Amino acid sequence: MAWLSLEFRVSGADVEVLSDALFAVGALSVDVTDADQGSQEERAIYLEPGEDILLSWGRNSVVGLFDRQSYSDQILSALATAVHPLKLPEPVEYRIDDQDWVRLTQQQFEPIQITQRLQISPSWSAVKDGSDVNIILDPGLAFGTGSHPTTQLCLEWLEHHITTGKTVIDYGCGSGILAIAAKKFGAGDVVAVDIDEDAIQSTCYNAKRNKTAVEVISAIENVNIKVDIVVANILPSPLTVLAPLLAQLVKPGGQIVLSGILVDQGSDLMSLYGQWFEMSTYKVMDEWVCLQGNKLGS
């Protein structure tokens, strides 16, 4: 017998009550997504560190998954009592056949051709011919598989600007994808920095798998070196807080690359970093912008 899935369409105000009630009546998992996903009404939500977590959209699809022996009439009766006085809409009921979930998940990740020269591939997928630089990277706990525009913009910048022997810091390294790419493009010493232990472990593992020599440092330590290029693909809030430190890490005449930035957030960061760099926009992809700067002074 297949798994039982019940999908409800509710407003943001009812999401938490319904989710708690679904767990209370035996749901194995509860999934909340934007009911308008894929339409013109879809609304992206971007949060900065320290902001209150927003758990819902205007219209939400709330899906409860139950085991094979569950019966919807019993669940709905118990659910009506649990959410009273809230009136629930009629759910969409369907059964989900058991599958090879690992294989199904892996099928979502195919090799990504970033540029003509660079390809990112999961370990279970065959590497396509024709790319000079191939990076093997599996999705994991740390950010950076090559699929997000902010990562692709940084990778493209590195490909076009790394010359043999250039020293690089990847600050907020996540999976280590930018540090590994820099090394494969011919950089000299490459240092990857992150505050998250999962990211540090992920970078160490991925660098070893790709046979690249990358020094990995915790941001908790005192990073006291100067390099030719600093790349930071994080978020505007930490980029703002870290600005003096990141500027200090760049040698006179060196370069900085900033990403993880929405287009309408770019001007404030350009103004801030303009204290130390001659800033400009490198490129825009979708709603994301990548900024670049040359260190002032000599």
Notes on the protein architecture:
By secondary structure, the protein is an alpha/beta fold. The chain folds into two domains: 3-98, ACT domain (Alpha-Beta Plaits); 142-295, 3-Layer(aba) Sandwich (Rossmann fold). The chain is 28% helix and 30% strand. It has a seven-stranded mixed β-sheet with strand order 10-9-8-11-12-14-13, sandwiched between helices. α4 packs parallel to α5. The longest helix has 13 residues, at 149-161. The chain is elongated, with a radius of gyration of 23 Å. The mean pLDDT is 87.
- Number of E-type strands: 14
Number of domains: 2
Q: What amount of the residues lies in strands?
A: 25-35%
Q: Regions with pLDDT < 50 over 5+ consecutive residues?
A: none
The residue-averaged pLDDT reads 87
Reported for the largest beta sheet, the result is: 7 strands, mixed
What Rg is obtained from the alpha carbons, in whole angstroms?
23 Å
By secondary-structure content and strand pairing, the structural class works out as alpha/beta
What's the total helix number? 9
Distance between the termini: 72 Å
Helix % is 25-40%
Level-2 CATH architecture of the largest domain: 3-Layer(aba) Sandwich
| The CATH H-level homologous superfamily of the largest domain | Vaccinia Virus protein VP39
Order of helices and strands: EHEEHEHEEEHEHEHEEHHEHEE
At the first level of CATH, the class of the largest domain is: Alpha Beta
CATH topology title of the largest domain: Rossmann fold
State the strand order across the main sheet.
10-9-8-11-12-14-13
- What general form does the structure show? elongated
